[in-house]
Amino acid sequence: MREVLHIDWTRCDGRGLCTELLPTLLGRDDWGYPLAMQAAGGDPSNVVIDFQHSEAAADAVKLCPKMALALAYEADQADETW
Amino acid sequence: MTSLAAQMPGLGDHRGLRGTYRLFAAGNNADISAHVQAFGPLPASGIEGDFIDVLESAGLTGRGGAAFASWRKIAAAGAAARSRAIMATKPVVIANGAEGEPLSFKDKTLLAHAPHVVIDGLLCAARAVAGGQMFMYVSAPSIPAVKRALAERTDARNIKIVAASETFISGEASAVVNSIANGKALPLERRRRLSDSGFKGRPTLVFNVETLAHMALIARFGAAWFRCVGTERDPGTRLLSISGPISGQILEVAGDVSLEDVLTQSGIDVSTVGALLVGGYHGRWVRRLDYRLAPTGTESHTVRPGAGVVHVLLHSQCGLEATAQIVSYLATQSAKQCGPCMFGLPAMARVMNAIAYGDRDPRLLLELVRLSDVVTGRGACHHPDGTAELVRSALDQFSEDVDAHLSGTCLKTKGRRS
Ligand code: SF4
Ligand code: SF4
């Protein structure tokens, strides 16, 4: 089970703190919102976090001013929208 | 499995229930007596837990857009309710009649003429999960007919009507739940399924009203009856809203029907048809008419019916202009909760309009493709994804038109480009 950083788009304001903490995993789109370089299961709301970034990802979760980030394991993600 | 004949005792007595003519068999503005005369009463028993098995063998899928297997949703909500340790939480069941899609009107028509079939279906679904609260979430014009129907029966006192808002996104399942619970028809950020935790944290089932109507008939006549129309992969019938040059009409067609059949049944001259938008504003443009309308199957031979929309574009109409108008509309319908959707859709609309209305910058095409990729999957609901799909299909199906526009002509409106 891989660790996954989930972005809640309804909260994120695109100020980009997370992209500074995880520059190799998150880029920024045209408007500043985080852009997953490696999306878990093809879902760009879920960023694959490898072991060496685990701590930085946990920091991002803590420091995100909008509480838009959460860490989870891939299997916990709902696969359908119903 | 009992034989088909045994499943339909006296079906011949119920007028009209033949071929694909099913959901409206009780006629226009059917009241409770017309309803019972046409379909017979709703069976008092046999719609408890094992109804899930009946639904599974019927193979009913959702008719609101996503085409999930109905039995799986019910089973998941039932399991979630049973797994709650303290105080059994009864699942909530919602009939979703919010038809935000501008090209769709089959749900309003169904609620106007056959409200009792929908109500029966809601009662069946609720019984199957030993449900508690029931809601009918319908747009304002549908409320009087639904109210009247509810007042005509004694078994529907626990059903509450809630007015749906008239936005494109109002029918998205989590927006439905949010609207009923908090009065805000906006999609919710969700990390759990609604069938697990929805309305007030309870297991929640949201079914399109047409899906429920099919359930009501399956409860009466059985799975084999349901399957005697349609095909293995797409059994039963579905309603279609047909629009375009002709005035809108509703068809009930067999599952897996070909687009050509649909047009013929609608009385549309196939030779005038340039392209079809299938599924709705989040759907797909197609130009070949030998596609089959089914929720599963290869992209090259099937097109998903979505919410049952078939919109006709004539040879004389420009598909790029039509798409630009739709994308402009969709951009205004972003619920503005999620950045990539709030900014990305207007950006897509600008580029799409530039291509449609005479800008000749050759980079526009790649820019539109890039923006479509940027927004995809980056919202709390599928609004950006659906919009991107529509745009991709337009660029694919109207590629010669794109070339013509970018070189200053239009194949359809002949040379009135700059
Ligand atoms: S830190 Fe939080 S609010 Fe800021 S861009 Fe990242 S997810 Fe969005
Ligand atoms: S993706 Fe768009 S429409 Fe969907 S919730 Fe977010 S902002 Fe609203």
TrEMBL record, chain A:
Organism from which the protein derives: Arthrobacter cryoconiti
Pfam families: Fer4_15 (PF13459)
Name the record gives this protein: Ferredoxin
Lineage: superkingdom: Bacteria
Gene3D superfamilies with a match to the protein in the record: 3.30.70.20
From TrEMBL, chain B:
Entries under InterPro entries matching the protein: Nuo51_FMN-bd (IPR011538), Nuo51_FMN-bd_sf (IPR037225), Nuop51_4Fe4S-bd (IPR019575), Nuop51_4Fe4S-bd_sf (IPR037207)
Keyword annotations of the record: 4Fe-4S, Iron, Iron-sulfur, Metal-binding
Occurrences of domain NADH-ubiquinone oxidoreductase 51kDa subunit iron-sulphur binding (ranges): 320-365
Pfam families cross-referenced by the UniProt entry: Complex1_51K, NADH_4Fe-4S
The keyword rRNA-binding is annotated on this UniProt entry: no
Superkingdom field: Bacteria
Assigned protein family: Belongs to the complex I 51 kDa subunit family.
Protein name per its UniProtKB record: NADH-ubiquinone oxidoreductase-F iron-sulfur binding region domain-containing protein
Provenance organism: Arthrobacter cryoconiti
